[in-house]
Amino acid sequence: LHNLSDLLARVMPITEWNIELTEGINALICENQNKLALH
């Protein structure tokens, strides 16, 4: 996974990579919060 991140970071512009990463983390956090709220 770490190697994949390095590869993507080199292929994609840094700003785009940061935006994608931030959105991905936010999505995971939202999903986890929803699961916790349901239980």
What is the succession of H and E elements? HH
- Please identify the structural class as seen in this structure: mainly alpha
Kindly state the number of beta strands: 0
Net shape:
elongated
Number of helices: 2
The biggest beta sheet is recorded as: none
Give the domain tally.
1
Proportion of residues in helical segments? over 70%
Low-confidence stretches: none
Average pLDDT, rounded to a whole number, is: 82
Radius of gyration from the alpha-carbon trace, in angstroms: 13 Å
Q: Strand portion, in percent?
A: under 5%
N/C terminus separation? 30 Å
Description:
- The chain has 39 residues and is an all-alpha fold.
- It has one domain.
- It contains 2 helices and no strands.
- The longest helix has 25 residues, at 14-38.
Write out key terms for the chains shown.
mainly alpha
Short note summarizing the structure:
With 39 residues, the protein is mainly alpha-helical. Helices cover 90% and strands 0% of the residues. It has helices spanning 2-11, 14-38.
Secondary structure layout plus pairing:
Layout (H helix, E strand, L loop, with lengths): L1 H10 L2 H25 L1
